[in-house]
Design a protein that fits this description.
2 strands, 17% strand, rod-shaped
Length: 76
């Protein structure tokens, strides 16, 4: 018994698969895990327009401001 002709070709299938697969947006968690795996300390991270930006380096030693000092005086 002969087969009936195919209703679609292999190129149609591959073209349809390429259209449905899209690249995922990078996540903050994934970027932080990748930086940790590379051994790079992350100072800050921001997300803008679907882009993750990491700033590397050690945190600055002087992170206090005048409000921290005022609140510490109120506790004593």
């Amino acid at each position: 018994m002969p087969r009936s002709p195919a209703t679609f070709r292999q190129t149609d299938v591959t073209r349809a698969l390429k259209k449905t697969v899209r690249r995922r947006r990078p996540t903050l968690r994934g970027a932080l895990e990748a930086a940790q795996k590379a051994g790079r300390p992350v100072r800050s991270a921001t997300i803008e327009d679907g882009k993750v930006t990491l700033v590397f380096g050690e945190p600055t030693a002087d992170t206090s401001n005048e409000w921290d000092e005022a609140l510490d005086r109120g506790k004593r």
